[in-house]
């Protein structure tokens, strides 16, 4: 999919009406906004000219979210999921990984677009999701905190549409999970609380978590089936821990692992280990943001949550970075890079001001490691707004290279036309790895379009609140 798409997030207002009074805690808004509510500031109430804020009103450094890109990506992923697997497949469900943004407003937008669930990584993130009213949460790890078990039990007692699914990769993890649940009083103190659903995690030797073989995973499945208060709900894993690029060899590794996951699911079914009372059927889940196309190719034919062709089974993809995408790592490995998935657009951009030209060919910006991600590649200078205003002039890769980041500085080496960058100019930076971009900002201004599609001065149309603790 490459054309424009519509989505429930197209307005981009997000948390503007809920953030309350702005102040020093919100480094992404100008000091002139302090004392105003988020809604009033976005709407221009109290502004000298009565106009809503625009990009040039924002301080630097700043991280912005592009509403048009998020709308496109959310709708594109929903459309892809409906048709996943092509003629031989039945589509898949989405449970996007919420740890990417830890922004409940984005989660709600993805659920409104058709996502089946939201995925999280830790007990605390589960608590945030439950507090935000997310009805179905997949925890990509074990739940060993008795207090969060109690919170989950209360949520599950709230209705048949609520579900929490956790992972286990060893009999010891199963025992610890069951003990934590028992210690929480779940199933006794909370009347009507159903069993906790557990997915067996398949890994690979020498890699991250996960049972090291199908046979080992079957042993874990048997332990879950026998544990009090737990219910075996399916199989899962994360193929992104196996490889880190889109070479033919790496794609082959992912395919081989997905076939082992399929085998594990079949063996669990053959042994009668999977519960017959699972809402919507057994869950078979894989697929981060890099290889979800392969998940569809290898598993989508099993997606049958209504049980029309056999025991109900739900194939669930957890791509989380897709909501914001990037201009670096994911742009190089996402299915679109090989023509097998939806075309996504970068929704996060850094904006930093030139604050020093101490020698020819060198410019220093006012953003650094405190502001921008750098673990999967350094930010890339994409365009410049002279004096921080007006149209953004593209910067060619051969003109400018990011060579280093300090805590609060970015080093740009310049050639040709880019050597005319002047103190006060504002550079738009393309970023790599949204998972380590969102966590640096508690509040993000939302622009109508970061590329200036709506005019030379992008408008601030909303605010997005993140919850990283």
From TrEMBL:
<dbReference type="InterPro" id="IPR029066">
    <property type="entry name" value="PLP-binding_barrel"/>
</dbReference>
<feature type="domain" description="D-serine dehydratase-like">
    <location>
        <begin position="347"/>
        <end position="448"/>
    </location>
</feature>
<dbReference type="InterPro" id="IPR051466">
    <property type="entry name" value="D-amino_acid_metab_enzyme"/>
</dbReference>
<dbReference type="Pfam" id="PF14031">
    <property type="entry name" value="D-ser_dehydrat"/>
</dbReference>
<dbReference type="InterPro" id="IPR042208">
    <property type="entry name" value="D-ser_dehydrat-like_sf"/>
</dbReference>
<dbReference type="InterPro" id="IPR026956">
    <property type="entry name" value="D-ser_dehydrat-like_dom"/>
</dbReference>
<protein>
    <submittedName>
        <fullName>Amino acid deaminase</fullName>
    </submittedName>
</protein>
């Amino acid at each position: 999919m490459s054309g424009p798409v519509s989505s429930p997030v197209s307005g981009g207002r997000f948390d503007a009406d809920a953030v309350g009074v702005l102040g020093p805690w919100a480094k992404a808004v100008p000091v002139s906004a302090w004392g105003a509510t988020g809604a009033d500031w976005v709407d221009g109430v109290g502004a000298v000219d009565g106009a809503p804020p625009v990009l040039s009103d924002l301080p630097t450094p700043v991280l912005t979210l592009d509403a048009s890109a998020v709308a496109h990506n959310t709708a594109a992923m929903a459309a892809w999921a409906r048709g996943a697997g092509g003629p031989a497949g039945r589509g898949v469900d989405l449970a996007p990984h919420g740890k990417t943004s830890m922004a409940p407003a984005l989660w709600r937008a993805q659920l409104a677009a058709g996502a089946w669930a939201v995925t999280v990584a830790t007990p605390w993130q589960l608590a945030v999701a439950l507090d935000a009213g997310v009805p179905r949460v997949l925890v990509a790890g074990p739940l060993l905190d008795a207090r969060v078990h109690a919170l989950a039990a209360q949520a599950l007692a709230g209705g048949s549409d609520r579900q929490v699914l956790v992972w286990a990769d060893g009999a010891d993890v199963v025992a610890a999970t069951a003990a934590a649940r028992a210690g929480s009083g779940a199933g006794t103190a909370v009347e009507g609380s159903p069993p906790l659903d557990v997915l067996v995690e398949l890994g690979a030797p020498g890699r991250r978590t996960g049972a090291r073989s199908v046979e080992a995973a079957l042993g874990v499945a048997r332990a879950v089936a026998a544990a009090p208060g737990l219910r075996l709900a399916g199989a899962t894993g994360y193929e992104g821990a196996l490889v880190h690029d889109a070479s033919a060899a790496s794609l082959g590794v992912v395919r081989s692992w997905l076939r082992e996951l399929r085998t594990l699911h079949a063996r669990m079914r053959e042994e009668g280990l999977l519960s017959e009372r699972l809402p919507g059927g057994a869950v078979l889940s894989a697929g981060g943001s890099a290889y979800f196309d392969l998940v569809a190719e290898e598993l989508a034919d099993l997606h049958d949550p209504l049980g029309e062709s056999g025991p109900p089974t739900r194939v669930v993809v957890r791509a989380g970075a897709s909501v914001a995408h990037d201009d670096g790592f994911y742009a190089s490995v996402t299915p679109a890079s090989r023509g097998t998935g939806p075309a996504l657009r970068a929704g996060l951009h850094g904006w930093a001001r030139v604050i020093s030209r101490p020698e020819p060919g060198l410019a220093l910006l006012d953003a650094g490691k405190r502001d921008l991600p750098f673990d999967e590649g350094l930010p890339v200078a994409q365009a410049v707004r002279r004096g921080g205003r007006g149209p953004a002039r593209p910067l060619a890769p051969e003109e400018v290279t990011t060579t280093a980041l300090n805590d609060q500085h970015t080093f740009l080496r310049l050639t040709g036309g880019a050597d005319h960058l002047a103190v006060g100019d504002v550079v738009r930076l393309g970023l790599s790895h949204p998972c380590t971009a969102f966590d640096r900002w508690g509040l993000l201004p939302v622009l109508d379009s970061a590329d200036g599609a709506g005019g030379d001065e992008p408008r601030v149309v909303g605010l997005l609140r993140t919850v990283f603790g």
